[in-house]
Design a protein that fits this description.
The protein is an alpha/beta fold. It has 25 helices and 32 strands. The strands form 9 sheets. Strands 22-27-28-29-32-31-30 form a 7-stranded mixed beta barrel. A 6-stranded mixed β-sheet has the order 6-5-2-3-4-21, sandwiched between helices. The mean pLDDT is 96. One of its GO terms (molecular function) is metal ion binding. Its cofactor is [4Fe-4S] cluster.
Length: 753
């Protein structure tokens, strides 16, 4: 039987009534997205027709999921909320802190020793507050959620941007910062701006070398990394129905790379098959009873242009395998065009490593299709030219593929199997030689390929592809190899061609596992003690941020004016810094160390306005904090794209940065800044970005009359005595303004004004 089946049954029992009322309120047929949103309103029964992209709305999510890196800060905040138990079903998943280096068992043992303090903390907090705990090695949060918790028509939030993976099972699943998770676990409403809707109509059927991954790689090329910002993407059409449930999950997972709030699919037979295969036939039976409400109204898909803000159509029958990258997940290149693109751009074409797996592509179907190619390589006497690694998404998948012989197949071609964890996808990869910073190319089936993300080497050119294509390219050792047309020379000197991959959507003998790695919480956690050593370098209890002083902000120093792309990896790096995710003071030492200063074109080098010297960003900011001087960060487009990590907002807040002013924000990061009591501002005229000079003193005027919809004024006092003034915009509503005034949203929850 499924987890939380009574909650799911109760959700479905009222679904029809809520959808009917929403249809009356809106006055037209509804998309699937709208049905899920309107059936999860905090107010209960729908009474308002919300305006897309403008209305702030309170929701009541069904559940919360947290991974270990972000859970530390989320739970440290929750401990301040004064509750004895979480208000909604919640889970913690230990997947981010395991470094991939030698192999699964060795790496897991090392992580269990090195991270014991953190794992013990997360385990005890979970036990005390009624939170399900998934131990190290159990699997990656999003794969485990898909296998155990996701259900059609549900709504969940998770402290990781790839929470959206659960859309593969028909959920509206959204990545958030820990403060948002804290609110929901504390029994408070969760706020979201009512999203715009993008419809993607899929026709035809995948064939040959194409896979579900190629759908989202194509969409990323169309929409770019910010084209989905503020929108939910809803996939539909005969092509959508032809995809596996886990294939749908892959598409939704990487929807985070287009900035989408989330992505989702209508309930269909592939979801039913997956539910039954993962021992959740009871959910499938319940879903079948409300099936008409787990898809859009028929009129929507018949005339999508009338109901979506944007419609994209992709014919799966004509879709080519794609490689996206390097350095950005939206630079989409069909494999047939890679030869000319690589030559034109000077990309290294020798593939050094091929990596498959991760939360994006670690399903049984993914592994079996990749294994069919590994088997071909062995049978056709092809020795892979590149290193090859597999990162299973969960112990359920790993155990099953081992039982079915796939791991032995991979071992025939020299593959290394890492632990069931994030590993190289998030920079937790101890790659030999990466410290030499040599120019090289890797290919992987992960979701992100920002500079330095996977191995810390800024000169690693990382390309994103399907597991099948990654396997083929690792065998060939050549980025320009097109398996549709090219041949390879085997160890006998013969020309051979790889046949298209094949595999099973689900295991014929069913899934199997000895120990999935789950720890249920205590029925009564009142006597459980959660201890944090004051001398710890890994964990630190939180002190409330200071409330707003009630005046305009005058004389701010410019900390950094960022040039170009600035993701959360640039603001708060992962990799070796993950170990400090529960210690705000220590992790603040990585503040903006990956960002490029426009004034000197250097990374992690800014001018200290106290003495005119140049130093590392966090060191300069700590000096400003010690002197009681506030500062401001200036950024470019889509500032804060990438991970949901709220550390990217908490670190500048902790070190005394008062505002972040940019051309545009990624959704999650803007919300995180607001939650932490920061000013998140955008240029009313983007050209004003050019007016900001390195030695400026900056005022933010209008805060004493801070109102929803009313711009603020920025005054620049230049070193030569001249002055510039211009308007800056914000998206704060009345409640969010109260967060700012109180010092943070958490201060309001805990009454620490």
């Amino acid at each position: 039987m499924a987890f939380d089946i009574d909650m799911i049954r109760a959700r479905y029992e009222k679904l029809g009534t809520l959808v009917k009322k929403a249809r009356e309120v809106v006055g037209r047929p509804l998309t699937l997205t709208e049905k899920i949103l309107y059936s999860h309103l905090w107010e209960g029964t729908p009474s308002s027709n919300f305006e897309r992209g403008k209305s702030y709305v309170d929701f009541a999510p069904d559940r919360v999921a947290m991974q270990d890196a972000t859970a530390q800060m989320a739970l440290l905040q929750f401990m301040s909320a004064g509750r004895s138990k979480v208000a909604v079903p919640s889970t913690v998943h230990c997947d981010h802190l395991i470094t991939a280096k030698i192999g699964s068992s060795e790496d897991l043992a090392t992580a269990s020793t090195e991270n014991k303090e953190v794992y013990d903390f997360l385990s005890s907090v979970s036990n005390k507050y009624g939170i399900g705990f998934w131990k190290p090695g159990a699997g990656i949060i999003h794969q485990v959620v898909l296998e155990n918790y996701a259900f059609p028509g549900g709504m969940m939030i998770g402290t990781d941007s790839h929470t959206v993976n659960a859309g593969g099972l028909g959920m509206v699943a959204i990545g958030v910062g820990g403060a948002d998770a804290c609110d929901v676990m504390a029994g408070l409403p969760w706020e979201l701006k009512w999203p715009k809707l993008i419809g993607v109509k899929l026709t035809g059927k995948l064939n040959g070398w194409t896979s579900s991954k190629d759908v989202i790689l194509k969409v990323a090329g169309i929409l770019t990394v910010k084209g989905g910002t503020g929108a939910i993407v809803e996939y539909f059409g005969e092509g959508a129905s032809s995809l596996s449930c886990t294939g749908k999950g892959t598409i939704c997972n990487m929807g985070a790379e287009i900035g989408a709030t989330t992505s989702t699919f209508a309930y269909d037979e592939s979801m039913e098959r997956y539910l039954r295969s993962t021992s959740r036939g009871d959910i499938a039976d319940l879903a079948n009873g409300v099936k008409e409400h787990l898809t859009a109204d028929p009129e929507v898909y018949a005339n999508p242009d009338k109901f979506f803000d944007q419609v994209i159509e992709i014919n799966l029958s004509d879709l080519e395998p794609h490689l996206n990258g390097p350095f950005t997940p939206d630079l989409a290149t069909p494999i047939s065009k890679m030869k000319e693109e690589a030559k034109k751009n000077g990309w290294p074409t020798k593939v050094e490593v091929g990596l498959i797996g991760s939360c994006t592509n670690s399903s049984y179907e993914d592994i079996s299709r990749a294994a069919s190619l590994a088997n071909q390589a062995a049978e056709k006497f092809l020795k892979p030219k590149a290193e090859f690694t597999i990162t299973p998404g969960s112990e359920l998948v790993r155990f099953t593929i081992e039982r079915d012989g796939y791991i032995k197949v991979f071992e025939k071609i020299g593959a290394k199997v890492f632990a069931n964890a994030c590993g190289p996808c998030i920079g937790m990869w101890s790659r030999v030689g990466a410290d030499k910073k040599e120019k090289n190319t890797i290919v992987h089936s992960f979701n992100r390929n920002f500079q330095s993300r996977n191995d810390g080497n800024p000169n690693t050119y990382a390309f994103v592809a399907s597991p099948e294509l990654v396997t083929a390219l690792a065998i060939a050792g050549d980025l320009t190899f097109d398996p549709n047309n090219d041949t390879l020379t085997n160890e006998k000197g013969e020309k051979v061609k790889l046949d298209p991959p094949n595999g099973d959507e689900l295991p014929k003998r069913g899934f199997d596992v000895n120990d999935p790695g789950y720890q249920a919480p205590a029925a009564d956690g009142s006597n459980i003690q959660v201890v944090v050593d004051p001398k710890s370098t890994r964990l630190q209890l939180l002190a409330p941020f200071i409330k707003w002083e009630g005046t305009d902000l005058k004389g701010l120093n410019l900390l950094i004016k960022v040039k170009g792309k600035c993701t959360t990896d640039h603001i708060s790096m992962a990799g070796p810094w993950l170990k400090f995710r529960g210690h705000l003071d220590n992790i603040s030492n990585n503040l903006l160390i990956g960002a490029t200063n426009i004034f000197n074109e250097k990374i992690n080098s800014v001018k200290n306005q106290l003495d005119g010297s140049y130093d590392e960003v966090p060191k300069v900011q700590r000096q400003y904090k010690a002197k009681g001087i506030g500062s401001i960060v200036i950024g470019d487009e889509n500032y804060g794209e990438g991970s949901s990590r709220e550390h990217a907002a908490m670190e500048p807040r902790f070190l005394g940065v008062r505002a972040v002013l940019v051309k545009s924000f990624a959704r999650i990061h803007e919300t995180n800044l607001k939650k932490q009591g920061m000013l998140a501002l955008t240029f009313a005229d983007k050209a004003d970005y050019d007016k900001i000079q390195e030695d400026d003193k900056i005022d933010i005027i209008g805060l004493t009359d801070f109102k929803e919809g009313t711009p603020l004024t920025l005054a620049l006092h230049h070193k030569d005595g001249s002055k510039d003034e211009f308007k800056v915009n914000h998206t704060y509503n009345a409640q969010q303004i109260e967060w700012f005034k109180a010092g943070s949203a958490l201060n309001l929850i805990g009454g620490k004004k």
